[in-house]
Amino acid sequence: MAQSAPSSWTGYLPLVPLRIRSALKTDLGCSAAELVYGYALCLPREFLAFTSAPSSQSGSYVKTLRDCIRSLRLTPLRHNSHRQVFIDKALDDVTHVFVWRMAHEPPLQRPYDGPFRMLRQSSKFFTIDRQGVWHTLSLSLLKKAHIDEDADVPGPSKHRPTNAASAIDAEPATTVMSANEV
Q1: Closest by Cα among 142, 138, 126 to 180
Q2: 98 and 161 co-located in one domain
Q3: Count of Cβ atoms closer than 10 Å to residue 144 Cβ
Q4: Cα 96 to Cα 153: distance, rounded to the nearest angstrom
Q5: SS3 of 112, please?
Q6: Does any domain span residue 56?
Q7: Rounded CA separation 182/178 (Å)
Q8: Pairing relationship of beta strands 176-177 and 125-130 according to DSSP bridges
Q9: Fewer beta carbons within 10 angstroms: which end of the chain, N or C?
Q10: Cα–Cα distance between 62 and 171 in angstroms, integer?
């Protein structure tokens, strides 16, 4: 910016911090403002102070500043809100799962509860037996439990029906949770 008009480099000083915050970091693929705020900077018109009686000197300064801003390239917006949740492929043939606690835990505490028996699964949700109560949970909260065949795991639920026809009628109320609820 200052190289195009070396004699008036002081006129570009207000744009230097703005340029630093909005400059694209090639290694990260985003600007410093996007890292801090989550989106590119968009300055409102009210950001600039307007005077009631413009002088000839301030008019040329504003014109120079406008020309400088027009010559800048815009940084394309980056949408970080649509992140992909990792879903383990091992959950396709699982019998028991661990459930993430979704709470801040003190150091050296287990982040997962379980193991719990998996009762049903769909493309995005699992129904598990958690101490006799059925819960429907999002896949993003689950982790496969590797159970030894001889290990002692929680027994069958009291609410589990004996045949498939009565499964719908005998199902207790379920709780649906996802990773977005904290």
Answers
A1: 138
A2: yes
A3: 18
A4: 9
A5: strand
A6: yes
A7: 9
A8: unpaired
A9: C
A10: 71
Instruction: State the CATH number of the domain containing residue 171.
Output: 2.30.30
Give ∠ CA 52-55-57 in degrees, rounded to 5: 140
User: Which domain, by its residues, includes 129?
Assistant: 89-177
Contact 75, 22 (CB under 8 A): yes
With tokens 């000083």, the residue in question is 13
Cα 115 from chain centroid (whole Å): 27
Q: Which two tokens stand for residue 4?
A: 């195009």
- Same-domain check for residues 93 and 167: yes
Q: Is the pLDDT of residue 163 over 50?
A: no
Tens digit of each residue's pLDDT (9 = 90 or more) over 102-143: 777 788 888 888 888 889 888 888 898 988 899 898 888 888
Phi, psi of 98 (to 5 degrees): -100, 150
CA dihedral 136, 139, 145, 146 (to 10 degrees): 130
Angle at 114 between CA 110 and CA 117, to 5 degrees: 160
Task: Assess whether pLDDT exceeds 70 at residue 155.
Answer: no
Chain center to CA of 153: 34
Average pLDDT, the chain: 72
Q: What do you get for the CA distance between the two ends of the chain, in Å?
A: 46
Global pTM reads 0.39
